[in-house]
Specification:
The protein has 226 residues and is an alpha+beta fold. The protein is built from 8 helices and 7 strands, in the order αααββαβββββαααα. The relative contact order is 0.07.
Amino acid sequence: MRGQVINMHTLQKNIERTSKQLNIDADELQLWLDQHMGLTPYTQVQLLRMAAKYQLDPLSDEIGLMDTIEGHQVFITIDGWIKIINEHEHYAGMSLRESTTVSHEVPEWMECTIYRNDRILPIVIKEYLEEVLTDHPSWQKMPRRMLRHRVIQQCARVAFGISLSDPVEHKKSSAHNLSEKIHCSTKFRGESQSRSAVLKERLSQKSSGESHVELESKNSYSSKPR
């Protein structure tokens, strides 16, 4: 009970602090959080701290929550990344380049370069379609745009040292873990069934052997002279 009171108090402090820094109403921010069912206090605090740190407004879709197998995950939208890039004091420009070879009419890779006025060399990041493509409808409908968004996000992370969980890698990891769990469960059931079959066979043999011995004993007894 005491832990719940502390959690709510901490959450409320973060809501008030973040709403002041973003210049938005605290009740509106609370309403935005309430629309996401099953949010833990830790996830809410994590989002509020990230929003306050980079001045990202969740009501303007600059930061949000992704529903994954393992629960909600905080992520920065492309609008949020563009805001971070343009408002950084050392940002000096960005350029994009794409592969001349295509896969399913989409460039095999895209490259983003971000220039900083306090660095000699620019930051260059390349992302390959086959490594980041997911089953999400946005990736299926707009793969070129999503690949462009992806490479901008990753380049900004490196250029400005932003630490945040990667939604694409997290989703692939979750899918892989789920696949492994299903495989292990199926394998375990298969092994259990095999062991069960072997056990039944042995019991059947044992029962048959005991019946045979019993039959022989009866025959021996009945053959004795009276």
